[in-house]
Amino acid sequence: MGQACRIVTPIxxxxxxxxxxxxxxxxxxCVEAETVDLxxxxxxFNLGKxxxxxxxxALADENYVxxxxxxxTEMIRTLKPGGTLMLWNLPKWNIPLGHFxxxxxxxxxxxxxxxxxxxxxxxRLYPSHYSLLYFVKGTKPAIFHPDRIPIACCRHCGGxxxxxxxxxxxxxxxxxxxxxxxxxxxxxxHAKYKKWEANALPLKLMDRIVSMSTDPGSLVLDPFGGSGxxxxxxxxxxxxxxxxxxxxxxxxxxxxxxxGDREHLKEIQRQKNMLFTEEDLRRREKSxxxxxxxxxxxxxxxxxxxxxxxxxxxxxxxxxx
Length: 321
Ligand SMILES: C[S@@+](CC[C@H](N)C(=O)[O-])C[C@H]1O[C@@H](n2cnc3c(N)ncnc32)[C@H](O)[C@@H]1O
Description:
By secondary structure, the chain is of the alpha/beta class. It folds into two domains: 12-144 and 180-270, 3-Layer(aba) Sandwich (Rossmann fold), CATH 3.40.50.150; 147-175 and 276-321, no CATH class. It is 26% helix and 18% strand. It is built from eight helices and eleven strands. The protein has helices spanning 24-29, 61-78, 91-101, 203-213, 229-236, 249-256, 259-270, 278-287, and strands at residues 12-13, 17-21, 36-41, 79-89, 106-114, 129-136, 148-149, 176-177, 181-182, 219-222, 240-245. It has a nine-stranded mixed β-sheet with strand order 1-2-11-10-3-4-6-5-9. The protein has a two-stranded antiparallel sheet with strand order 7-8. α2 (61-78) packs across α3 (91-101) and α4 (203-213) crosses α5. The N and C termini lie far apart (44 Å). Mean pLDDT is 88; it is low at 299-305 and 309-321. Residues 23-24, 42-44, 51, 53, 55, 199-201, 223-224, 226-229, 244-247 line the site of S-adenosylmethionine (SAM).
């Protein structure tokens, strides 16, 4: 443990996880040093929002940065050698926080996640990505198995949106390497899966982060639980987890029935680590667009063409090479 741990009883305990209703720093003080494989944080962004926990989300810039440095220091302490720290925030804050992290950890990536998060602002560019900072303790990650993703295809006919030219037979049948720009993360769905408050991150994002930097049995830490997306991704994929929030009612409500999340996660996992999704193959079949036999996948073949031909980019080398 760090400084004296003052919290005794978790508000929720599952076979894999423990949730504390407490301030992030108090929770972190209760986590032993060098035990965590993945420490993830999605803190409030200091945008003057109203949170159920009534925190002050409108601090002076330097106070916000110094508050973040306090809990980041604790998160760093809890990381195993080779452990991963990921920080989700606006680019504005991840610039100074990335500089701070770079003094203690090794920088791996600034991942841009393409999600629009505000309305267009006059005189500014349209804010359309979040920053996901990726650091490790020590020189390289102990665990690193990034998802592979399917080739991007037309939603109507299933045809590739990019021409892989003469490289088709070299494409990995498990899909394309992910880059540090993620454009395939949909916003949180409403109705069917979203029964909790705003600010929840998409389950697809947390599944990608958890599966990239942990194995089953690894320990995942998140001191800003929110609606519990990190914990759900960890729980449903056999990781251990620990975390908290000042208010845990959304997480308790969510964990009362994980059926919707389980179903959603199955769908997410069905669509990764393959070159073409079943949906795209079905669309192709329906629109009669045969898949080149040079791809190393098994697919039904068929007839007529669709108008959405890939835009030729023959000189571009595919990412999976
Ligand atoms: C952006 S939300 C996290 C959302 C979460 N990643 C999810 O997917 O649901 C930030 C959360 O941090 C919590 N929070 C704010 N200040 C905190 C503090 N000092 N200690 C613990 N939690 C805090 C808020 O209550 C809020 O639920």
